[in-house]
Amino acid sequence: MLKVERLVKTVPGGRSLFGGLDLSLAPGEFVAVTGESGAGKSTLLNLIAGLDTPDAGKVMIGGVDIASLDDDGRTALRRDRVGFVFQAFHVLPHLDLAHNVALPLALQGREARESLNAADAMLEAVGLGGRGGAYPRELSGGELQRVAVARALVHRPGLILADEPTGNLDPETAARTLTLFVDRVRDAGTAVLLVTHSAVAAAAADRTLVLSQRGLIAHG
């Protein structure tokens, strides 16, 4: 589902975050990436998503080399094949929960009623059934992250990129949210690349890699 080959990226000042990095995820595989702050974990996600450009190397999603695409093509690839879960939720405050979750389907041009029905089903799957008409201001942090998980999965992407998805939650809420996230992505058969500082979150993955200047090193 994801293949990264010989990825090179330097930051201002000439510091290399990683040089010649390789990574692959099979369909349905769950991989966690850990590492110290500043190691480049979030930059790696941005490069994979086509939101940043590497100095060298190749990123392929579903067999498509994102460097071969123009801006519109990369946008379409993200819209159709990738789901995102962020630490800060990025739930839109002016939309109710159903319309927040339905947003990826709306961007695909799907019919409104079909999109909202799918959103309601995903809200049910994450334990928020019947609350599609509520607004984000009415929810706790853990509930907002459940909405973000539902939105990431509603269009059935092949790959989810998750950046510290439990980082803003207290430990108990983080544990519950992580369990729900893992259960839902396993049910969907979606490949996941999770970057995290949390050993608990990383332990939920099939394998854990540590990002360093030497590249990605298998943990343990």
Would you mind describing this structure in some detail?
- The structure is a single chain.
- With 220 residues, the protein is an alpha/beta fold.
- It has one domain (2-218): Rossmann fold.
- It has seven helices and ten strands.
- The protein has helices at 41-48, 71-81, 97-107, 112-125, 141-153, 171-188, 199-203, and strands spanning 2-11, 15-25, 30-34, 56-61, 64-65, 82-86, 159-163, 191-195, 207-212, 215-218.
- Strands 6-7-8-3-9-10 form a six-stranded mixed beta sheet. Strands 2-1-4-5 form a four-stranded antiparallel beta sheet, with no helix packed on it.
- The radius of gyration is 17 Å and the shape is globular.
Report the mean per-residue pLDDT as an integer: 90
CATH architecture: 3-Layer(aba) Sandwich
Radius of gyration, rounded? 17 Å
CATH class: Alpha Beta
Number of strands: 10
Major sheet characteristics: 6 strands, mixed
First-to-last CA distance: 24 Å
Task: Give a summary of the structure in a few sentences.
The protein has one domain (2-218): Rossmann fold (3-Layer(aba) Sandwich), CATH 3.40.50.300. The protein is 36% helix and 27% strand. The chain has helices at residues 41-48, 71-81, 97-107, 112-125, 141-153, 171-188, 199-203, and strands at 2-11, 15-25, 30-34, 56-61, 64-65, 82-86, 159-163, 191-195, 207-212, 215-218.
